[in-house]
Amino acid sequence: MIVIGVGNDLRRDDGAGLAVVRELRGRCPPDVRLATCDGEPVQLMELWNGADLAVVVDAVSPASGPGHVHEAAELPTGTHADTSCHGLSVDLAAELGRILGRMPGDLRVYGIEGVEFGFGSGLSPPVRRAVTEVADRITALACDRRS
User: Fold this and answer.
1) Which domain covers residue 86, as residue numbers?
2) What is the mean pLDDT of the chain?
3) Confidence band of 146 (pLDDT split at 50, 70, 90)
4) Residue 133 is part of a domain; what is its CATH number?
5) How many domains does the chain have?
6) Which family does it belong to (predicted)?
C-alpha cells in the first residue's frame, strides 16, 4: 500500500494532501509507503505503479463546502484544476495510467474541499479538521488490510 499526498504547501489549502501524509507518519504499519507529489501525472504513475493499493489525497475546488471530504466515486469533475497551482487533476493521471497500463491494483482518492488557495502557508480550520478525518480513515484502512 502507498499513500500519496498531492499538493503545494505554499498555496494554503492546496497543501491538504501533504498534511495528511505528515499526520500519518508513525501511525501506519511499516509496510505502508508514504509519499508526496506536486500532482505531475507521470510522477503519480511512477509512485503508484505496481502497488496493490494506492490512496491519493488532494485538495479539490469548493462544491459542497470547505473541509468536505469526497471519495473517488463522488469527486467533482475537474477536481482542482481551476484553483490549484499544479493544474492537472488526479483523474487525468488515472486516465493516463489506465491507457499506459501503469495503475495500482486498487486506486482510492480522497478529495478535501479547500477554501483558501492563495499564496501563503497554513490550512484553513475546516481543511485542518478534514486532514485529521482523512488520516483517521486511512489509518483504519491500513490496519484493516493487515487483519
Assistant:
1) 2-146
2) 85
3) low
4) 3.40.50.1450
5) 1
6) Belongs to the peptidase A31 family.
CA 8 from chain centre, in angstroms, equals: 12
- List C-alpha distances in Å: 26 to 31, 32, 103, 116, 135: 12, 10, 27, 28, 12
Order of strands, sheet of 53-60, starting from the edge strand that comes earlier in the sequence: 33-37, 2-6, 53-60, 106-113, 69-71
Q: What is the pLDDT of residue 88?
A: 52
**Segment 101-130, tens digit of pLDDT:** 778 888 899 999 999 999 999 999 999 999
Instruction: Centre a 10 Å sphere on the Cβ of residue 94 and count the other Cβ atoms it contains.
Output: 21
8 Å CB contact between 19 and 138: no
- For 11, the grid coordinates are 498555496
Containing H/E element for 70?
Answer: strand 69-71
What pTM was estimated for this model as a whole? 0.86
What letter would DSSP give residue 39? Answer: S
Residue environment code for 122-143, b if the CB has 16+ CB neighbours within 10 A, otherwise e: ebbebbeebbeebbebbbebbe
